[in-house]
Amino acid sequence: MKIGLFFGTFNPIHVGHLIIANHLVENSDLDAVWFVVTPLNPHKQKSSLLADNHRLAMVRIAVENYPKLQASDIEFALSQPNYTVNTLAYLEENYSKHHFSLIIGEDNLNNFHKWKNYEVILDNHEIYVYPRISKTAIKSQFDKHPKIHKIDAPIIQISATAIREAIKEKKEIKPLLPCDVWKYLDEMNFYK
Length: 192
Fold this sequence. Notes:
Shape: globular
Order of helices and strands: EHEHEHEHHEHEHH
Mean pLDDT: 92
Number of domains: 1
Number of strands: 6
Oligomer: single chain
CATH class: Alpha Beta
CATH topology: Rossmann fold
Number of helices: 8
Strand content: 15-25%
Largest sheet: 6 strands, parallel
CATH architecture: 3-Layer(aba) Sandwich
CATH superfamily: HUPs
Helix content: 25-40%
Radius of gyration: 16 Å
Strand order of the largest sheet: 3-2-1-4-5-6
């Protein structure tokens, strides 16, 4: 089975994440997409995140009705901070029947050369890149790389940061979240 790994803190997961994942699983050779909830991204502050179990719960709620999408807590048991290369090695060792690919935004591709052991990742895994609005051109080493596939997916300009700020400011953001994720956030009084 070919699995696309969509890494993120998902703080919170929103409809943009679902649109991209669903587009990829329906319009590429991926059989499924796993939303890998990251406990600690090396480039983000832990203090700004909801507890791991709450972010995982929201992802599970969001993908509940999509059989090709799945929530994953695989990084919760791994050493932190989480580096993609380490997670991929763990997955290859423990899920040998699957082939894992990465799903990243075009903005992340421009920083891919800064990832720990990015060459190892690129040697062993395909990368599916969804479009983002960016003023930076893609680095030439990645532009025509045979393992990097640019996907003609919808451009989604929804930000979890903007959602958190809007909730603090008591703005209406329900359309940006799966209905049951909004209910969970609201009941738990998160981001207020």
